Amino acid sequence: MEPILNEKMKFEVKIVEKKPAEAVILRIKTGSKDLFYKKSGDSVVSQGDDGIDVTFYSGETVNADTFRSLGGKIADWMKEYTPPCAYYDYDPKLPAEELSNLIEGFLLGAFEFDQYKKTDPVSVDSTLFLNAALSDILAQRKIVCDAVNMARHWAHEPACLINPQTLSERIEILAKAYGLKCTILDDQQLSEMGAGAITAVGQGSKTPSRMIIVEYEGTKKEKPVVLVGKAITFDSGGYSIKPSDSMVTMKYDKCGAMAVLGVLRAAAELQFEKPIVGIICAAENMLSQNSYRPDDILRSLSGLTIEVISTDAEGRLVLCDGLTYAQKKYDPQVIIDLATLTGGCVVAYGHVRAGVLCNQTALFDQLYASGEKTWERVWRLPHDEDYAELLKSTDADLKNTGGRWGSPVTGGMFLKQFVSDNIPWAHIDIAGVADLEKGTAYSVPGATGFGIRLLLDWLQKN
Prior knowledge:
It is a single chain. The chain is α/β, with parallel strands linked by helices. The chain has two domains: 12-143, Leucine Aminopeptidase, subunit E, domain 1 (3-Layer(aba) Sandwich); 157-461, Aminopeptidase (3-Layer(aba) Sandwich), CATH 3.40.630. The protein contains 13 helices and 19 strands. The strands form four sheets. The protein has an eight-stranded mixed beta sheet with strand order 7-8-10-9-13-17-14-15, with helices on both faces. It has a six-stranded mixed beta sheet with strand order 1-6-5-2-4-3, covered by helices on one side. A three-stranded mixed beta sheet has the order 11-12-16. Helix 2 links the parallel strand 5 (85-88) and strand 6 (127-131). The protein is elongated, with a radius of gyration of 23 Å. 51% of the residues are buried.
């Protein structure tokens, strides 16, 4: 079996009591640009008293992501030059938050998904050593980044390897490894309980739908925070079939659920006080004689009926039953769902911010603050009831799409119909930020793991 919990890293980051004699020394220059240092990531190699020095420039302006990005650029340097041994000679005057971000950049930038490539059997092991004074920061950041890198790794896995059944098997292994409770509801159980929306989406596939519930008990006896994640393991669009070019990258349509799993893994390792429940709504949206169709009317777990206008608006169908299950089973203090829900969110916000439709301003403000800190940034979508008018159906309680106009909003407003107004709830549409064609300074092209660092920071603060 391929690695389940161990993510591929191109180099290791370790603690050492003193600089190894043979190590390349890495330093950081801050402040004004000059002849040699003009932009962030610029580096100069020199011969120092203790060996080779490589000095990297942080850039002239500093924001919440500057040192994280710089860490990613140093990680790229490590990947390119593969020094057997490097040592970061840190400046104790650098604020703890900047050091934390820098180390986060190292760890996120070290990730690589190349397990299906033919690799050179003779490879150079490379290690970046940090001073023992940074051991606590490294320990904390490694837990978080390992969770992000696991989510990225799983998201990269194609549908021939991850489908609702094999995903549930992986999650069982994950839960056992981190002391989490795992419950798997198969399509028969879901049908018997009346979850007709999620089962409809998966009925065209040879691997039917699953709802996978992962519970972290926490140390406090209180209502749980429930995270609901969309896990469409592949999305053909169903009978509302996607153009062939648009099907490429649809393995990333499970990124919302991967983020939920990453949060639970890290929360268990960090021993968070709050109880957290993750509900993974898994289906494969395929075409067959058994597939659901436009014009079908589905009965959801809530009892609301849904007229299918587009079988390519399937994410909201699996999520609506997950949201209902969350409320019926757990009486949550907060619900947050994450989903690659709409292409319209990419049109609106590009690949910079996720869209958030939220029923409470205080909750959005908290998420916004955590997003600015972690650089997993969000922006609020409107939630005027006028948009819900677009979802009215002649033959059922709701239509599953309100059409092209305002699609990120109507997608969120559809989900809002399944959440009690008394429960703080946020829908995070990560369609534009879950995977990137060009990557970032600390994320290789493909899945980003967006949402994990954001939600962990939010959980710690709130």
